[in-house]
User: What shape does this take?
Amino acid sequence: PPNEHVVVTQPMRPWWERYQPVSYKLHSRGGTEAEFKDMVTRCKNVGVRVYVDSVVNHMAGLGRQGSGSGGTSFNSDNFDFPGVPFRREHFNSRDKCPSHDGNINNYGDPNNVRNCFLVGLTDLDQSQEYVRTKIAEFYNHCIDVGVAGFRIDAAKHMWPGDIKAIQDKTKDLPEGGRPFFYHEVIDQNDGAIKVGEYTPLGYVTEFRYCQKIAEGIRNFGMLHGVYDPGWGMTDSAHAFVFVDNHDNQRGHGGGGNLITHKHPRDYKMAVAFTLAYNYGFTRVMSSYYFQSSDQGPPHNGDYSAKDVTINADGSCGNGWVCEHRWNPIGNMVAFRNAVAGTGVDNWRNENEEVSFSRGQKGFFAMAKSGHMDRTLHTGLPAGEYCELVSDCKKKITVDGSGNAHIVIDNSAEPVIAFIVGGPTGSTGSFGGGSSGSGSQSVTSAPATPVPSVGPAPEGWARTVIMIERQTMPGQDLFIRGGIDHNHRQGCTTQASTSACAIPIKTLHLGTGSHYAQYNAWSTGDHYLDWYGMETGQHSYHGHSPSGTPAVWTTNVEGAAGYTPLNTYGQHYWLIDVQMDCSRTENGWFELKALVNGQWEGNIGGQTCGTPPYSSQNHWAKCGFKNVFHFNSGRCQISDLS
Ligand code: LM2
Ligand code: CA
Assistant: This one.
């Protein structure tokens, strides 16, 4: 939690002091508001969004008083928190709480769970307009600082209707879209409160997954049942899943018999599987080493947290575990992103070995013994693939019938995974193809050729590009493109003078909040080029464009972002421009997409028409409608009529 909290000295500076708010000033043990803002901005600039752990069920525990981490005074026994301010009348009164001592002690009674004090923490009354407003002001301030969403701590201890009212007072993100919300509800089939009460409000923590995955790693035969609806587990579209969290890895909140970083081999398998499988929205934990369950983060003499240092081998120093840097964890994130939206196929689970494919986009295998050597059906297009967990040190060849020889031989990390379209280390720079940074992309086999359209017009013509890419709120898609520097003379790194850049004029698509960023970013964007933001191209709320902007579209009539051009589905990002076809290569031009600064992988095996030369980018035709898929050679070029 980034807000001001109590400073506990008995025991000495435990981690959990941060769960006892004193005010909503962004001044915590982690740093000042300026420091927090600097971190959030730096993360955002490289495509990492930050969400805040928000503690709004309660303020500090009874018996505590003095100065908070930001120097604000408070007194819990008097219910006095002048930093907000909250006073006695803003807390749940004793008569609303059916408990003999005022503390939560009957999980069978929602009034007890939600109106009484959680371990003596002074319980706010979120049914009050004033309390809701103060919490929403805190959220809105976080959004102003650049935050993209919220974990709602102790959501189980608040009424869903009150949370809804607070969410309704919380503004959209400046870049468009709602903030991300997930609700911490520990539902282990052991009380009156069910996760389903919170699913209309966003994602909900699914703590039963922690138990299920631990069971599955102990006995792979159980892995098919990690999502067990019969057990009350919520559906994939609402489940927020993780192998462990900051509480249960140390025996707090819903702990017990789980897998944590203390057992690295099991942990790697558990997280890799979680990222590979198609259940829920996944969170990866990153920890510090600890001996006792109260112990705070590695600290200096003054109890400020120690820096996270990085060792030569990429691991962390100074007492930080950094599980997120372990290959079977960090590298599997690319897998999860690449296979989003696909199902599980070719499932095989025998003798403590498990393997499966995700649509025609990825394949995953794991062997508890540490060794496996088998030919398996992967369901993937023929080609040579980079194995992700080994950082591409291993290559896997899929033959024309979709089979591959799969070998697992790293006993400490007995996991392999590969995806269509990556990794490439591609920069896409200047359309010159591979960046030569080691890892190579996959070339998938061409699918059925599509009948080709007529020749491109001579001069200016309306040109439409659509790229299917499933995104989340806060993600934006830009394209860069033009002609390859190796195929034309006179190309520079300046759009206005480069012979490889192609003049465009953006067509107006709409007004209203859905188009706000698109309209800003397309102002002053005069070329499709490889060089990012043009001189004079507009920013949106301090957020600069990284190429020619696309706008999110859907095929759902009446929804924001609906366009009749989209006859396909959700998440088809659209660019609709007049283009100077005389600057293309016989009507053809190259392009690639970036999402939050991240290039898509190299494209192989384009299936449309006959482009003038081969390239690692998408090929589009001036004067036509061009439909592509992120990280894929699949395409469709058709007449604009
Ligand atoms: C959560 N989710 O609902 C957090 O994930 C969890 O980490 C928080 O508990 C809890 N809710 C309240 O925000 C932690 C920790 C507790 C600790 C509280 C408050 O697990 O042990 O309680 O933070 O700092 C501590 C003492 C407890 C004492 C209480 C109040 O451990 O013995 O109760 O403070 O002074 C008298
Ligand atoms: Ca409450």
